[in-house]
Each structure stands twice: as C-alpha cells, then as structure tokens.
Write a structure and sequence with these properties.
Blueprint (H helix, E strand, L loop, with lengths): L1 E8 L3 H12 L5 E4 L15 E3 L8 E2 H15 L2 E3 L3 E5 L4 E6 L3 E12 L3 E3 L8 E2 L5 E3 H11 L6 E5 L3 H12 L3 E7 L8 H8 L6 E3 L1 E7 L6 E6 L12 E4 L2 E4 L3 E3 L2 H6 L23 E3 L10 H21 L7 E6 L3 E5 L2 E3 L6 E8 L3 E10 L2 E11 L5 E6 L10 E8 L3
Helix pairs in contact: 1-2, 1-7, 3-4, 4-5
C-alpha cells in the first residue's frame, strides 16, 4: 500500500492550489490524482481570457492560469498521477484508485482534500420531448470538442440556458463561423455573469431570449429544428406561443452539479442548497481529516475565488497532518434567511478564528439598492449596502472575528433587505 501525508483528489485549479499550499506549509509527501490526461481541469478548454484578475492582477486565458500552477507544482516536486480514477475513499482515509499503469492501488493518507469539481446537468434532467438525434451537446462538451479536439458541433445553433459556459460558447461558435439563433433563458434574467452577457452576446448581436424554453427537439439522424415556447413568471410554458426554429445543433447550459459521488459514499453530510459538503471555516467536512474546496464544495463564478478557498483547505490539511488532531470546540452555525440561497462555510469553529472570517453567499433573485443584514442570533452585527446583486454572482463577505468571539453555539444569519424596509 502506498502511503502519503495528503492525497488531493482532482488536478484542476482547486486541487493544484490546495496541494501547492500544503507543500508550502511544510508537508512534503503529497499526491495529486487527476482522472484526465493532463493537469489543469476545466481550465484547459477555457481558451477565453478573463482569468487571474484577482490573484495575478492580469488577464489570462484558462490554460495560462492553469500553467502557472502546474509549473509551480513541478518546481515544488509534488507527485501526481494522470488518467487515474478514484473509486472509493474510506473513513480511515484509504483512497482506492485505478489506472492502466498501476492497476488497482490503495493509498493510505493522513488527510484527503476533495477537489473533484462539478459536472453539467444533462438533457435527461430536463424532460425535453423528441428523439435522440446527433447534435445535442452540453455546452462544456461542445467547448472541449471545439477548443481541444478540433471538431465543429454545428452550423446553425440554438443554446438553451444562459449560464456562463453557454454565453461564452455563443461567442465561440460565431467566431468559428456558425450562426447562433439565440440564447434562451427560462427566467427573466441571464444566469451568467453580466460581463459575459455584454462581451459574448451584445458585442456579437446574439439575441438573449428571456422567458423562453425548448419543449421539443425534432430530427431523426441529425437535429433539424426545435420547438420554442414563451414562459410565465413561474417558468412554465404559455400555451399557444410555440414557434419552430430550424437548426442543426442544440447546446445545453442548464446548470452545474458538484461531483460528490465519492463524498456520498463516504457518508459526508451534504448541503442541499449547494450540492456540496458541509464544511467549517477551515474547509473541513464533518468527517475528520477530509477537506473540500472549489466547485465540488459550491459552484463558483470566478476561478480566483476557487484558488483562495483551496489555499485555505491546503493550509488547514497541512496543519491537521502536523498535529493529527482536529478542532473539537463549539461552532457557530450559519443560516441563509430571506433572499439568500446559501452560505459557505456552514459552521464556524470559535477556537480557530483568525483576524477575519470569510463567507461566500448567493442571493436567490435580482436585488437592486439593497442591504445584506448579518445577525448573530437576534443581534445585527453588520449591514452592507449593495447596488445590484444577482444569483449568478457570488458575494464575498469578510467579518472581523472579534464580532464572533465568545459566541459559541450561536446562529449567524444573513438576509437581504431593500433600502426602504
């Protein structure tokens, strides 16, 4: 059996940052396990720019951002295995993995960092009527086919879902010579970042069709057309609004799901709002010595925040390995209230507080001229004004730890209030 101090599952931006930070904090015996043929994760197919503005203060493409961490991983001599699938993780932190070189291997770790990222929601989850012709792709798969494999997915394309990958692929398809009929959103706003709506749709005259949905895909061998309907405020189809659009490809950008099969099998408690593990301020799950970071924890909007969060997990895992003990102090629980979809971390250990505590949250609707109200039990400890908040953009909140000191077993709630309230 192989033995390592820390095993990192996932070699994308989260796993790389966590491994590097653990190494910098004095842990030499680290292994990164990546299922793909190269390190870097999803960044390798994201050839557009916009990465690294927070971390490196410059605009990079996805591969350029990944390369900086891959180079550092090599310089630090951190071991990694490619084309390797993790099959199981036990509560004793035995990682079972398989590849074509080693076969089935068991790896004993002192700490494990989960950084498996997320996957796309598929057509099967949408119940769209029709057959199964060639030409229906998840937006991320289309991105990989075009940017990495050199295949074009269609000449006349319609995109369902206004997530960031869908918006970016609309522009990418136009640049490759395709016609994009439009990007459809079932609701009244785009699900992606505002800057992507402007840079990817507006700048290329691609229609954003709000309150529209695809209800049927036509075609036997290849996609021939789709039936589109208008939707009401509850995102339900409005009868009599059906319209047929001819196309030869449909891209789906309808949400991302944290990749937590391993976490589930391990018995780690998951947050139904994020789809990821419940963690404390050190990114440690409820299973001792198992940490989680990046999109496997909650879906991020900016990769720089993935890096910062993963560095926190790497440092905490290294401290756990050196001390071989975990925090057993009391926790402050975090609880989303009115207007808030989720808060990460879900609990804050009162004996681990540094100078500040960092919280990430998302709102569940569009809010203008509003306030974020943070309460500890029934006492308001901070209010933050925001001119504009949308569900697609994460909010990062930094609290002075002195506000939480001595408040064991309290509940920290966050809610949204309009300026008039």
């Amino acid at each position: 059996m192989l033995i390592y101090d820390i095993v990192v599952v996932g070699g994308g931006p989260a796993g790389l940052a966590a491994a590097i930070e653990a190494k910098k904090n004095g842990i030499d015996n680290i292994l990164v396990i990546e299922r793909d043929r190269e390190l870097g994760g999803i960044l390798q197919q994201c050839i557009h720019n916009g990465f690294g503005l927070h971390i490196f203060k410059e605009e990079l493409t996805g591969p350029e951002y990944a390369e900086k961490f891959i180079n550092e991983l090599h310089e630090l001599g951190i071991e990694y295995k490619l084309d390797t699938i993790v099959l199981d993780i036990s509560k004793d932190k035995i990682v079972s993995a398989i590849n074509t070189v080693d076969g089935l291997v068991n790896i004993q770790a002192k700490a494990v960092i989960l950084a498996m990222g997320c996957r796309e929601r598929t057509r099967g989850a949408l119940n769209i009527a029709g057959t199964r012709p060639v030409g229906v792709y998840n937006a991320g798969m289309a991105q990989r086919l075009i940017n990495m494999e050199g295949y074009m997915v269609g000449k006349k394309v319609i995109i369902l879902g206004s997530g960031d990958i869908g918006l970016i692929m609309a522009r990418r398809l136009v640049l490759e010579g395709a016609e994009v009929i439009g990007v459809l959103a079932r609701g009244g706003y785009a699900a992606g970042l505002g800057r992507n709506v402007v840079q990817c749709l507006d700048d290329y005259n691609i229609p954003l069709m709000l309150r529209h949905n695809i209800v049927k895909i036509n075609g036997k061998d290849r996609v021939e057309s789709v039936v589109v309907v208008k939707t009401d405020e509850k995102k339900q189809a409005i009868p009599g609004t059906e319209e047929v659009y001819e196309c030869d490809a449909v891209l789906l950008s309808v949400g991302l799901i944290p990749e937590n099969e391993l976490s589930n099998n391990l018995g780690i408690k998951l947050d139904r709002n994020t789809g990821g593990p419940i963690v404390n301020e050190l990114m440690e799950t409820d299973t001792e010595g198992i940490f989680a970071c990046g999109n496997v924890l909650h879906v991020h909007d900016v990769v720089d925040y993935v890096t910062k969060e993963s560095q926190k997990a790497g440092k905490a895992a290294s401290e756990y390995v050196k001390n071989q003990s975990r925090s057993i102090g009391e926790f402050i629980k975090t609880k989303p209230e009115k207007g808030v979809k989720y808060i990460v971390p879900q609990k804050i250990g009162t004996d681990n507080l540094g100078k500040t505590v960092e919280l990430f949250m998302r709102v569940n609707d569009i809010y203008k001229e509003s306030k974020i109200i943070i309460k500890l039990d029934d006492t308001v400890i901070r209010q933050l004004k925001r001119k504009h908040m949308i569900p697609s953009e994460m909010e990062r909140l930094v609290l002075d730890s002195r506000l939480l000191t001595g408040k064991e077993e309290s509940v920290l709630t966050i809610e949204i209030s309009s300026e008039e309230e």
